[in-house]
Amino acid sequence: MSFRIEEKILIGKNQIIEFKKIYQKKLFKKLYPSRLIKSLYFENLNKDSYRDSVEGTLPRKKIRVRNYPNDKNNEFYLEKKISSCEGRFKIKKKIDKLNFVKIMNYGVWDDIYGYCKPLIYVEYNRHYYSLDNTRMTHDSNIKYHLFKSKIVKHEENNIFEIKTNFDTNLNDLHSIFPMNRSRFSKYCNGFQKFFIEA
Questions:
Q1: Domain residue limits at 128
Q2: Tens digits of per-residue pLDDT, 172-193?
Q3: Interatomic CA distance for residues 81 and 4, integer angstroms
Q4: C-alpha angle 155/34/19, rounded to 5°?
Q5: Least confident interval from 71-75, 111-115, 122-126, 138-142
Q6: CATH number of the domain encompassing residue 172
Q7: Structural domain count of the chain
């Protein structure tokens, strides 16, 4: 288990060009080809995963199945993103399509949240960059839709996430990207668009 620093920056569509100039000037290099990501998030009846995330409760989790629809193998992964007093980490397990179908039909059991059922799909394009021990992802064209629903809602912002080692000097990181950080969560934002703003 390895802990890491994760910081998010929200950039509006009209600011993208200027922001790209910053990381291109710092010689960030493209790490992988861009790809489409689709995640199905799970929630219990009390919506505790959403509430814990909004309130910043520790420990907390987000439970999802992630896949890459345009990849040749289109593999599925059951993931639990965990935030604790010690830091953040992710538990990831590869599953086959048959198990994914079972999980969609019957849900998953979690030791904190109990029985969780599929609730919201989040889909977006991800671009990957790196500089030394720092990795940056750029998520664009973010879409949300409820499980078994055709209604789609869109995110106006682009999300940049900076991931680096736990012992990285944050002052150095903030000198490269002096913008305000955000606690933005795609799952929580999708939840709010369907259940709070509606």
A1: 4-195
A2: 777 878 888 898 999 999 999 9
A3: 12
A4: 60
A5: 71-75
A6: 3.20.100.30
A7: 1
